């Protein structure tokens, strides 16, 4: 059996570290979405996010920076549809519950990614993933201190769960579109995957902001500024995630993305006055330990391959 080339393994480590920055961008997006959804419907905020993503993709394509040549249509369609439902449910959840609780519910998607990836693309989780995943999930639970009585409405909770399940399927589809499946087809470019996500997401959310399912609420100039900033952080975080998933497994990416919860809780406390419980320090330590375990596991395998 031939050894993987060092650049590939180095790319895996670099991708894992890049995902930490992606988590920060997604947490910022959540805080901005929470701010915008104080008056605007959450589904409308999701629609604007997708619209800005389509515009960013069009600008990149027109300038020659984006390569969009779809090949794996099935996986791209699954990525777009399930990703669109996930974002719409997540933003609607943000409107109903505190930003930290909504982010925690959404970020349980690695559980479903693990299941879908194992069943659909035969991606068996590593031992480090089996150890780090429960560690990080326990950590983020301690950070939030979630209890059933603290969730303001069953609808908000169910939307958060729905966003996690559909995110798990969307990430699995993204991973399948980007990886080498040995089927003779080249992997999709990050821009092809991103365009399928934003374009189909736009189609999924549009019916929710027009009659009879919803209505459009005209944003103020200040709200437009918040929405544009939200869209920019979303595009940046999504592109980093898409590129990184070519080098790391979906489960590993899911574990590292638990940092989004840590960042969102800190931002919620700072900007929205959300109370930080005494368990915040313990939960944060566990979360960071899980992320460190994942990154170090990637690094140790890389070093072992170089020596072996």
Describe the 3D structure:
The protein has 308 residues and is an all-alpha fold. The chain has one domain (6-307). 74% of the residues lie in helices and 0% in strands. The protein is built from twelve helices and no strands. Helix 2 (42-62) packs antiparallel against helix 8, helix 4 (99-106) packs across helix 7 and helix 4 (99-106) runs antiparallel to helix 11. It starts with 5 loop residues before the first helix and ends with a helix. Mean pLDDT is 81; it is low at 1-8 and 300-308.
Summarize the structure.
By secondary structure, the chain is mostly helical. It has one domain (6-307).
Unreliable parts: 1-8, 300-308
Task: Please count the helical segments.
Answer: 12
Shape: globular
Proportion of residues in helical segments: over 70%
H and E order? HHHHHHHHHHHH
Tally of individual domains: 1
Q: Strand pairing plus helix content: what structural class?
A: mainly alpha
Strand content: under 5%
Tell me the Rg in angstroms: 19 Å
N- to C-terminal distance: 13 Å
Number of strands: 0
Q: Biggest β-sheet: count, sense, barrel?
A: none
Mean pLDDT across all amino acids: 81
